[in-house]
Design goal:
The radius of gyration is 24 Å and the shape is globular. Strand 1 (about 220-225) and strand 2 (about 230-235) form a beta hairpin. Helix 6 (about 115-150) runs antiparallel to helix 7. The protein is built from nine helices and nine strands. The chain has about 400 residues and is an alpha+beta fold. It folds into two domains: about 5-190, no CATH class; about 210-385, Beta Barrel (L,D-transpeptidase catalytic domain-like), CATH 2.40.440.10. Strands 1-2-3-7-6-5-4-9 form an eight-stranded mixed β-barrel.
Length: about 400
């Protein structure tokens, strides 16, 4: 968790591991203090990660059991694992919201209030995350100043490690805040259109216009309305004849009015994911605008491109449209693409997990590089429904 002056934890965020101040005396008393503060900060920000000069960190069984209970409560009927994974790394950031998380998890997902309640919850998180970011920026500045004046090598090493751990945390909490912001906006917009969207989807499924394979029972819906752009991923519960929401986030599509070219308009129709393409596959030309206005390998993570096919006369025909992540996430929710469906990086990873589950069912076991052979053409085709739904 972020810390205030002298590495003391913020009282609102609960307890942090105590740091044994009985560190080896090296150099001046100021040097000893530098080791203790650096270790204190690193342990507070990322509990459990050892730092030089703090190898005698006190372990608290009560704190460990509290953390396990918090994780159990977060891992109840939530949309995806993102919140849980962040909580595992930085439990003190999430701790103030555990009660809210539990209440939302207990809600009926078909309730008309569900989406708006989630939007309001994410809205309450934003100012708290801003305060965490402010504190960690202050702490980085303090550590940087200490590095400039500390002469003792051991103390400098401790301060340096704490400095880099805090920088890592700042980046990760910044990414987390961006996703919370996207979630908030997407759930708020979706809350106005939910009944209409799900009614339309179920009608298309029952009529056979949308075909959902049994071995890949998911459907993606993209709202291309200029003021309401978002992407939803549902699991189709065939036996109950219902749709279970798995993911909701902002998206971006293309529009003729923005670019003045009709071929940059994202059509309203039913597509199917025909292939899953790794970003370094030869079919993705160097410099291609697959992320936004410039191509880049985002964080070196294995993000994927989902190529859309259309169904014609019983055959799947490849199109030029893709569903891919973007390096311009602040533009999500607007008509900013050249026709493709831009999603958040988080949404891309969530859809990947669906395909990993599918490929396991097909006997694939090695996911060291996904997709396993760089360009996988799944036999089962997940439908992607693009429509314009206004509130």
């Amino acid at each position: 968790m972020p810390t205030g002056q002298e590495g003391k934890p913020d009282a609102k965020s609960g307890p942090t591991p105590d740091v044994n101040t009985d560190v080896k005396q090296e150099g001046t008393s100021g040097s000893t203090r530098g080791v203790a503060i650096g270790a204190e900060v690193a342990q507070a920000v990322i509990p459990g990660i050892p730092v030089k000069g703090a190898d005698r960190v006190k372990k608290s069984p009560d704190r460990a059991s509290e953390r396990m209970e918090m994780m159990r409560r977060i891992d109840i009927n939530w949309d995806d694992g993102y919140l849980l994974e962040f909580a595992k790394q930085y439990p003190d950031v999430i701790r103030p919201f555990v009660d809210d998380i539990g209440k939302i998890a207990a809600m009926d997902r078909t309730s008309p209030d569900y989406a708006l309640t989630k939007s309001q919850f994410f809205g309450r998180m934003l100012p708290v995350l801003d305060e965490n970011i402010r504190k960690i920026v202050e702490r980085i500045s303090e550590l940087k100043g200490g590095l400039g004046t500390e002469a003792d090598p051991g103390a400098r090493e401790s301060l340096k490690e704490a400095f880099f751990l805090n920088q890592k945390f700042l980046k990760e909490i910044g990414d987390f805040k961006m996703n919370v912001f996207l979630y908030k906006a997407a759930y708020e917009r979706f809350s106005y259109n939910r009944a209409e969207i799900e009614r339309k989807l179920m009608a298309k499924i029952k009529s056979g216009e949308v075909v959902i394979p049994e071995e890949l029972p998911y459907v993606t819906f993209v709202n291309k309305n200029p003021g309401e752009q978002y992407v939803l991923v549902y699991k189709y519960e065939k036996a109950q004849q219902k749709l279970s929401l798995k993911s909701c986030n902002l998206a971006s599509t293309g529009d003729q009015l923005r670019w003045g070219k009709d071929d940059h308009t994202t059509p309203s129709r039913v597509y199917y994911v025909g292939s899953v393409v790794g970003l370094d596959h030869s079919s993705i030309r160097e410099g291609a605008e697959v992320y936004g206005r410039e191509a880049m390998r985002i964080e070196q993570k294995p993000y994927q491109i989902f190529r859309l096919f259309k169904s014609e006369n019983g055959e799947y025909v490849r199109t030029s449209y893709l569903m891919h992540p973007t390096n311009e996430e602040p533009l999500l929710g607007e008509t900013a693409s050249h026709g493709c469906i831009r999603t958040s990086r988080l949404t891309n990873l969530q859809i990947q997990k669906i395909y990993e589950e599918y490929f396991r069912g097909q006997g694939v076991t090695d996911f060291s590089k996904f997709p396993p052979d760089q360009m996988r053409t799944p036999k089962a085709k997940m439908p992607v429904v693009i429509d314009d739904v206004a509130k």
